[in-house]
Write a structure and sequence with these properties.
This protein is mostly helical. The chain is built from 5 helices and no strands. Helix 1 packs antiparallel against helix 2, helix 1 packs antiparallel against helix 5 and helix 3 runs antiparallel to helix 5. It is elongated. The protein starts with a helix and ends with a helix.
């Protein structure tokens, strides 16, 4: 299976997280509007990526002849639901500049938790899932 597009999307996503971190470090209150814009942009990319994984990647893995690949694909798909819900809830909580400006420390803390989990997920997919997908 050709997964180069998925890999590129991971690179783009991690770059977007880096851009968001730079905005936060430059000042949450001062850059609240740009932070919201970045979150909205990232959300679109993430939603498209997740939809492609659900429509193409996971079904291919789950239907693989190798039971280990099928099991791993199913496991990753099930785990992804929790992270997707956490990210969606995070964006809903911080979808307005006023919300971010009102509680910059709360935003920082919440963002650190969500983006740490997202980063770990991307790393796991790159290290564990994508090599299996390349064998399908």
């Amino acid at each position: 299976m050709d997964i180069e597009k998925f890999k590129r999307e991971h690179v783009d996503l991690l770059a977007a997280v880096t851009d968001l971190r730079e905005l936060v470090q430059a000042g949450v209150q001062e850059h609240a509007e740009a932070i919201v814009h970045q979150l909205v942009t990232m959300s679109s990319v993430i939603k498209l990526h997740l939809a492609a994984e659900d429509r193409v990647l996971y079904p291919a893995l789950i239907n693989a002849a190798d039971p280990r690949i099928a099991h791993t694909g199913k496991q990753f798909q099930e785990e992804m639901g929790d992270l997707a819900q956490a990210y969606t809830a995070f964006v809903s909580r911080w979808n307005l500049p006023a919300k971010i400006s009102k509680d910059p420390q709360g935003f920082r803390s919440d963002a650190n938790n969500v983006f740490k989990a997202l980063h770990l997920r991307v790393q796991r997919e790159n290290r564990e899932l994508y090599p299996l997908a390349e064998r399908v």
